[in-house]
Design a protein that fits this description.
Length: 213
């Protein structure tokens, strides 16, 4: 018996009857895992950037910490609900398409056993909606917690930016490692994008608040 890289080849002594038994680890659907991880990282990043941008926009015209927290919390709830509903509708539509395809395959050639196993592999819209809402909430909690206990207005804004920056770097690193892409490039891309979103929201809100209202 020879074993290498989790592959075991057993050869019987009888030369007329030779068996090759290959023992490989149970296959894992890496593409499916990648899709779920990508959706989770995207949801968390969306929650982080959108809620932080809302808080920075309010912070540009109001110094009250309560206003920032309430705005951020409203953005968290609205965003999580929006993500959940959107994901539910999207996955449910995908499930209907795949179910229709399974019915067509059953009519042509397919056993009941194969049909049942394939139906179990259909995407779950409730699970997808819950995961999307949870990911968004996880990201949105970071700027809320960062600003909740800071009294000084300028310090609060700086802490929010710092917390969001760390979160963006973390999510960029996760996406790069799991996607096998350059870590530095991924982190810089997501970091610059988050900074731009916060800066644009802060600047436009401050300009509108000081000139138009």
């Amino acid at each position: 018996m020879a074993a290498k890289n989790d592959v075991c080849i057993h050869v019987s002594e009888d030369k007329t009857e030779q068996h090759d038994q290959v023992c490989i680890e149970e296959d894992f659907d890496h593409s499916q895992r990648g899709q779920w991880v990508r959706a989770a990282v995207l949801g968390a990043t969306d929650g982080l950037v959108s809620v932080a941008s809302l808080m920075m926009g309010v912070g540009a015209v109001k110094r009250d910490v309560r206003a920032m927290i309430l705005t951020g919390f409203a953005g968290l709830v609205a965003g999580a609900c929006s993500m959940a509903i959107g994901e539910f509708v999207s996955v449910y539509s995908q499930r209907d398409v795949e179910a229709a395809q399974l019915k067509r395959e059953k009519r042509t050639a397919g056993s009941n056993h194969e049909e049942n196993s394939e139906k179990e592999a259909l995407p779950n819209p409730v699970q997808a909606a819950a995961a999307s809402a949870f990911a968004f909430t996880s990201g949105a909690m970071m700027p809320l917690l960062a600003a909740a206990f800071i009294v000084d207005h300028k310090v609060r804004l700086g802490v929010v930016v710092a917390a969001v920056s760390l979160g963006l770097v973390f999510f960029g690193w996760i996406g790069a490692v799991l996607g096998r892409t350059p870590v530095l490039k991924s982190c810089l891309r997501i970091l610059v994008g988050g900074w731009m979103a916060m800066a644009i929201t802060f600047g436009l809100t401050k300009w509108i608040g000081s000139t138009c209202l």
